[in-house]
Here is the input.
Amino acid sequence: MFKKIWQLSIFVIFISWLAIVQFSFISACLGIFGQINLGLLVLIFTIFFFGIKASIFLVLLFGFWFDLMTFKFFGFYSLSFFATTILSYWILKNWLTNRSLYSFLALTFISTIFYNFFSALLFYITASEKSFFLVASNFWLGLAYQLIWNVLAAVLLFHLATALIKKLKPFFLEKKTVL
Amino acid sequence: MIKLKKNNPWLIFIVVFGLLVFLHGLGILNPLENFLLFLIKPISGNFYSLGSTFNSNYQDRQNKESLSSRLEELTQEVARLTVDNSHFREVEEENKKLRSQLNFFSSNNFQSLPSTIIAQEAALQAGEENRDVIIDKGENDGVRVGLGVVGETGVIIGKVIETKKTTSKVCLTTRPDCKLAAMIQNTDRTQGITDGDLGLTIKMEYIPQLEKISSGDTVITSGLGGNIPRGLVIGRVSSVYSESNEVWQEASIDPLVNFNNLTVVSVIIP
Here is the structure.
């Protein structure tokens, strides 16, 4: 029981810290550095390695922090992350049945594209933006930067995770010769 | 029939999220939200400052380091001198008027509220053009929509467009749709509206052809509208687009502040 509370507390502090870093530090950076999306990256990592329950908790917490701090309508980020979670989970269950690096990269790639399209569309509908995001060159450039960051970070995270956590190490079926 | 398990994560999300939106809408969460924002504001301010420093260091390395820092110093110096110059010109103009009038008012009769930038709104969205900044002062501190915001050198950097209890959103003068009532300090005292252009520069449109504008003229706020006082420097005219067959001419204005290095600003409360 104590262990669970401890783990939960660490998780809450880590996600809150991550949200503040994304909100303040990364938003202050320009160009390619400003396109890092820590929330999405950690979300995909959590879905892939820790399952749906932890992901939902992450979406609620990270989304709440962002909905609280930014000036978009309350629930904007929670909904965007939740929609991405649904899609990622569905892809993981139906298409990517193994836990290889390539599966992780594919999931990161698809989820990043979906998240950006969904959030931009939601913003376009709710904020009645004048210019449609699909015709804005900034959107495509930003998406390209984000894909580069997320795929690179996914490679790094995958190797780090498999090296550090025993449970996540891939296993191989070996042929045993029976005498 | 759909079976709903007790620990269904989707159901948990819908219930918790629905509850949060409902309580937020009713305002019941306000004390908690304000408390959390109060807790993170200092941390956010430091993180933003760190990001801004990282940003300027990265930019400095990209350019030649010594030249860049020298240019930065000179830019700040020019901005300071321009502010002083425009202030003196306004005082001179005002003095002329005061000689002929008995009733006068002070143009600098306003208060400033120092604030820290804690974030940029564009976070988490690919390529969002409108990099509005979020400051750590809100309705509780007397900030309201339409008030002007100046940088450390006194140059106006934008205006408040949205407020919450403890934070506010400020649009930068270079952002499209961030309009300011302005006046060019030329012989005609040309008045107009400035608007951001692609997030990089400022433009002033619909200026009658007869008005004489030249590069280097200083552009200041005109004070029309009431929320932003007169005399705050917006920038300097860099080029004028004027065709003899056109009714209007257009001026391109260079802002006298580097928006990427802003961390401390002041809200002008008239």
About this structure: Chain B has two domains: 11-61, 69-270. The CA atoms of residues 155 and 233 of chain B lie 5 Å apart.
